[in-house]
Design brief:
- By secondary structure, the protein is mainly alpha-helical.
- It has 13 helices and four strands.
- A hairpin with a 2-residue loop joins strand 1 and strand 2.
- The longest helix is centred in the middle third of the chain and has 21 residues.
Length: 259
């Protein structure tokens, strides 16, 4: 059983103090040459969660989700598996993704910013076809299990999806501003395009201009299958086509038959 007090300080107070140092002094990155496991941070996150200390959860999450630098000589450990996205092995053991997805409403946008930054960093190092088998319209944290590097990608995207769903369900959230701030500036590749299609489809009426651009991209390229790649284009088309002006609907159908 955990000792609730140490030298006059509660365990929560000590953890809160140390997580700030972990982040500010980049402890996890500095220990990159050593094997670090998720359970080492799981207890800290649980302590903070049990104390309803969302602020400290965000601080520790940002540190834990530090992506392994490309130039790091330890970037491709192969002790138990292939590439590690993070400095921490078995990162799912920390439950950091669940804590971020379940964080109270007032912290959701900050949680999204942390995971988006992580995703952007990861996406720069990957080709157009990572997460090739996933449908972002159905992906959820509960559907992800395991600790392969591909599962780590799934955890990241599933967390973005769940937080964004919650943010967009709130009446006070400026969805357009959120999209422009966190999604529109992401690196351009197929995986991110598919993620954007999902996000835009959460409110197709609001984002109809952005969706129209994505729909008609089909007729602006010789690589049609790259536009149709994945389930997201068809799902987004189904979600938003009815919001197009009648003239654009007719134009789209005409061009489809001329492909």
């Amino acid at each position: 059983q955990a000792i609730p007090f140490v030298d006059g300080y509660s365990t929560t107070a000590l953890v809160k103090k140390i997580v700030r140092k972990i982040k500010d002094e980049t402890w996890i990155e500095l220990m990159g040459k050593y094997t670090q496991y998720g359970f080492e941070y799981a207890d800290m996150l649980k302590t903070l969660h049990d104390a309803n200390d969302s602020e400290s959860i965000l601080i520790l999450a940002e540190a834990v989700l530090n992506v392994r630098k490309k130039e790091d000589p330890q970037e491709k450990k192969t002790i138990y598996r292939g590439d590690n996205v993070f400095y921490i092995n078995d990162i799912s053991e920390t439950k950091v993704f669940s804590y971020l997805a379940e964080i109270p409403d007032i912290y959701q946008e900050r949680a999204l910013a942390i995971v988006i930054d992580t995703f952007a960093e990861v996406a720069k190092e990957e080709d157009n076809y990572f997460l090739i088998d996933e449908d972002f319209f159905t992906l959820s944290l509960s559907s992800v299990s395991g600790d392969s590097y591909r599962d780590e990608y799934r955890f990241i995207v599933a967390t973005i999806i769940e937080i964004t769903r919650k943010l967009f369900s709130g009446k006070k959230q400026d969805k357009m501003l959120t999209y422009q701030k966190y999604f529109s500036t992401l690196p351009k590749n197929q995986t991110i395009r598919r993620l954007k299609l999902f996000v835009l489809s959460l409110d197709p009426q609001l984002f109809i201009n952005e969706l129209k651009t994505e729909y008609f991209r089909l007729f602006e390229t010789d690589k049609i299958m790259e536009v149709l790649y994945g389930a997201e284009y068809e799902r987004a088309l189904k979600a938003g086509f009815s919001f197009l002006p009648e003239a654009q609907k007719r134009e789209y159908v005409t061009k489809i038959f001329s492909l």
